[in-house]
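Backbones bend. Our protein:
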Amino acid sequence: MCTRKYIIECIKNNEFTKEELSHWIYGIPYQMKAEVEIDHSQLKDMVHSMLVDLNNGQEKDVYFYHSDHLGSASWITDYRGMAVQHIQYLPYGEPYINQHPFGYSERFTFTGKERDEETGYGYFGARYMDHELMTMWLSVDPMADKYPSISPYAYCNWNPVKLVDPDGRDVLPTSEEAYQVILSTLPVEARNYVKQNADGYIDRDLINSYSCESQNFNDLKELVNLNNCTVEVTVTEELPCIINGKLDNEKLYVYDDAEFLKGLTGVTLFENQKGTYSLSTGEDGNTGVTAYPTSAAAHQSLNGNIQVGISSQLSKKGRAETFAHEFFGHAYIFATTNSHDRSLHHDVKNTYPIEDGNIELKNRIIRAQNETISYNR
């Protein structure tokens, strides 16, 4: 195959064959290729217009990223669709394969972060990371005091295959389903001001441009503007986390016989155990969970974020009410106070009924659920 340098020389000297150029432009999108035979002069004009800027005679340097699930550049192609670089990584970002036969070498590689050419360290904005020797951060996490159970040098809590370290702290819906759940707890007019930015987080500038009396909206806005934590929202059947000190998956589900049990006893199982938090839909079970970035919690998150999990088996209304419980109750109190005693436990005094326990948490949950119900009738 002809090299780019050779093609440039061919164009300059008008020395090339139709076969050579036809081979070289392989990879041009199909719609750019003529459906009929291209004569020699037409082929030359096509290549010249794509390769050379007619104003200053400079080559057009346009490249495209093809990323993996972590956002790491795996393939780099030029504007013709031809591969100019191929990279594969070891778990903590050290290049395992780095092929760039045409001389082009991309700086933004592992998880899309810049790699310093002199040191080989990855630059993430706040800190540098050693991808090869120590596979860890080179300085202490500026938020280390918030997560004492996690090493301040640990990259993604030692889970680099699944997690990434984004630049910033915010509210992060992990899917379209999760984003719709958040919207369903807000007034209809306020939903126009809750959008995701390019990184998937709730856009701060947009949400800050709107004001209303909704407490749910104002609480969401407050968490979006916090700089000390990220709250992830996931709709799932299980949430990976550390449960009572052991790595496990918290199963999230809805009882098939919840309505039967309610008819038999007069209350739902959840109502019977923990107070008046049952869903208006009649759904019951282990419908939601909040995992916290602290080892003091029964459910500890794996990545240093607050993680809210909502059962995918719930109806849309059930998801909204469960999210109101977990997000505006548990997650909100922990994010704003950093107190696991105030946010984790429904019954801090270990007594029933709930009125003798965590009144702050109870009142927040009931208020948020009732507001959510009013938007979903």
Q: What stands out?
A: Residues 316-337 form the longest helix (22 residues). The longest strand covers residues 83-89.
